[in-house]
Amino acid sequence: MSDNRQSLTDLAALTGAAPAPVAAEDNAAPAYTTDEAPIATPAPVVSTMPLREQIIDAQGRAYATGRRKDAVARVWLKPGTGKITVNGRDQEVYFARPTLRLVINQAFGVSEREGAYDVICTVKGGGLSGQAGAVKHGISQALTKYEPILRAPIKAAGFLTRDSRAVERKKYGKAKARKSFQFSKR
Q1: Which of 17, 18, 80, 123 could bridge 131 with an S-S bond, Cβ 3.0-4.6 Å?
Q2: Distances (CA, A) of 34 to 24, 30, 43, 132, 181
């Protein structure tokens, strides 16, 4: 290492520059000084996409439609205490199963807005599971209309995409969509 230090000081003496500092440890890379200006680091990339506008009605509510299977939910969202009303009934009465209530409140959990909004919705068609999925989809859409800044976390969770899975139709000559009748050889 001493040969290396000697050659660096000789080089500095030849060029007329001050000797460069050498690191104390043998295996550490030496820090060289230059007469150039420091390299500028690029500014962080900020999205050029403008934020969406807030869409609310005259009563200060955001409206959205949610769909799942054969169920369609019309959802109105406004600031409040966290009360969710489905078809004129409280959510605990309409969706008796706790898993369905958990599905409905997922959008509030992802956006960290539990208890911040009142929800009034009407649901038609399908069964209870499809209706809960439709209400979740509607709440997610309405949340992004009321607070456009929440669109990124809700979209990342996949709540803005309509779940298009539905029951496959029955085909003729089959017992169900794909199940065949029992085969008899004789």
Answers
A1: 123
A2: 20, 13, 23, 66, 84
